Model the fold of this input.
Amino acid sequence: GESVGLHLPTLSVQEGDNSIINCAYSNSASDYFIWYKQESGKGPQFIIDIRSNMDKRQGQRVTVLLNKTVKHLSLQIAATQPGDSAVYFCAEVRDNYGQNFVFGPGTRLSVLP
Amino acid sequence: EPEVTQTPSHQVTQMGQEVILRCVPISNHLYFYWYRQILGQKVEFLVSFYNNEISEKSEIFDDQFSVERPDGSNFTLKIRSTKLEDSAMYFCASSEAGPGIGYTFGSGTRLTVV
Done:
């Protein structure tokens, strides 16, 4: 049967507008988070990271916000461009000694001309 | 920019056959990982490898799977007796020192079991 996972949440934005993609994480002990971008047929590509001792970090056109109280992470993309169209995943490292990421389910960003 | 290289990009195999997926991590990286992504679903951790041994593995990584670093450059994932549900993208990743430093994914191998 069809997988629920095929129905990724989709965010459609007009080119030039700002995008906000949200992610809820599950483990309050997670201390490191990354946003990844995945284009069709490619591996996850690092966008920006943040450690749990921070609540905001800015990169080029991207900002990550971390709210540990409600275990919420967001990715803001300024002046969204057609090349930003992709699936975006947040990933967390679940404990201080873990080396592997736990990925969220992903959001598909669609940039409209 | 250094890359993690995976071969082949696409592998088709018959159910019950063994497959070996190959990865060349970034040369100065010490930690190596395999992840799996079933079509349309999230990326799932399989195994991490450090100092020539498995350091962590998920419940997905059962006796059907094994990893090896046969020489100084390759890192392989072997799947014995493949099942239809093993069809997925398999991503290799490597990092300098745990997930925080230089963590890089390869482009993946699409495995199709028929």
